[in-house]
Design a protein that fits this description.
It contains 13 helices and seven strands. It is an alpha+beta fold and 290 residues long. It folds into two domains: 2-101, no CATH class; 107-258, YojJ-like (1. It has a seven-stranded mixed beta sheet with strand order 2-4-3-1-5-6-7, with helices on both faces. Helix 3 runs antiparallel to helix 4 (62-82), helix 7 (107-127) crosses helix 9 and helix 7 (107-127) packs antiparallel against helix 11 (245-256). The longest helix has 24 residues, at 266-289. The radius of gyration is 24 Å and the shape is elongated. The chain starts with a helix and ends with a helix.
């Protein structure tokens, strides 16, 4: 207790500012990697290092402790190499102000996009034209957008029907709608699912790709079967199939519809979260008082 009080007495204002700045840097860094595949690799590395450090400390394993302490220099060199694409994209976003601005499609545009996708899916289902329509949410899809043909066009049912017309050059792949509400690219290549528990063992490549893109992030994918014309939707590695237009609209509104908190910039979301925390504590105190 005395040592703790001595530490408190020795802390100066510059020390507090220094600690807050370091914490802010780590917190900001988490936003740079959030929504990318690198976050899983980063968690795995940190979990492995912390786990080995705890084991070495508990059982006094000197060789393992020496290996961990001497591996920090190697990690300092390896991390920029492993996460080079993510670091580069993060620096580009900072240069464009994208981290703080967090551009998102407004609520009315999201509702319009949902209606256009529903109309396009209905027509595609009637014609039995296969389709993959990916809706970006928080996870970055830049690496998949780069595999396709850049469009940057408005989302309309006519454009989607044209993209997935079997005789066009862009029909074989996915159309990706970015978080600004534009069709960023068409004919994009998506990752196939790694799951062994598929809804159907005869599932084709298009449906496997729709599951795969939903497994690597929080994107939503609308898929139309070329063989049966059935409409499905995937999110979080799960698929809901045999949808009619009414159910498709309901699910899209639930997952992609207007959400004021998601549309706010990061600094506003942090402020709103702090206000909600304070108001929750006040409400709890009032309940206890009553």
């Amino acid at each position: 207790m005395q040592e703790f009080l001595w530490v408190l007495d020795s802390i100066r204002l510059p020390d507090i500012i220094d600690i807050l700045l370091v914490a802010l840097l780590f917190f900001g860094g988490s936003f740079l990697f959030r929504g990318t595949q690198a976050i899983a690799l980063l968690r795995g590395m940190m979990g492995l290092i912390i786990g080995l450090a705890v084991v070495a400390g508990l059982f006094q394993l000197q060789a393992l402790g020496w290996l961990l302490s001497n591996s920090l220099t190697i990690l300092a060199i390896a991390v920029p190499v492993i996460f080079q694409p993510e670091i580069r994209r993060a620096l580009e976003q900072i240069g464009r102000g994208g981290i703080l601005l967090n551009r998102q499609a407004p609520d009315d545009l999201r509702l319009q996009i949902i209606e256009e996708i529903v109309k396009a899916a209905e027509r595609l289902s009637e014609r039995r034209h296969g389709a993959l329509i990916v809706l970006q949410r928080n996870s970055s899809l830049d690496e998949y957008i780069r595999t396709g043909v850049r469009l940057d066009s408005d989302v309309t049912s006519e454009i989607l029907l044209t993209i997935f017309w079997p005789k066009t050059e862009l029909h074989d792949g996915a159309a990706i709608i970015d978080n600004t509400g534009k069709i960023a690219a068409a004919a994009s290549v998506l990752p196939l699912t790694a799951s062994r528990n598929l809804p159907s063992p005869k599932m084709g490549t298009r449906h496997r790709a729709s599951l795969g893109i939903s497994e690597v992030g929080d994107a939503i994918c609308v898929v139309v079967s070329e063989e049966t014309g059935k409409i499905g939707i995937t999110n979080g590695g799960r698929m809901v199939s045999r949808l009619d237009t009414k159910r498709l609209r309901t699910i899209l509104n639930a997952f992609y519809g207007p959400n004021e908190e998601d549309n706010l910039p990061i600094w506003k979301r942090l402020l709103a979260g702090g206000q909600n925390l304070i108001s929750g504590q006040i409400t709890e105190q009032r309940k206890q008082a009553n």
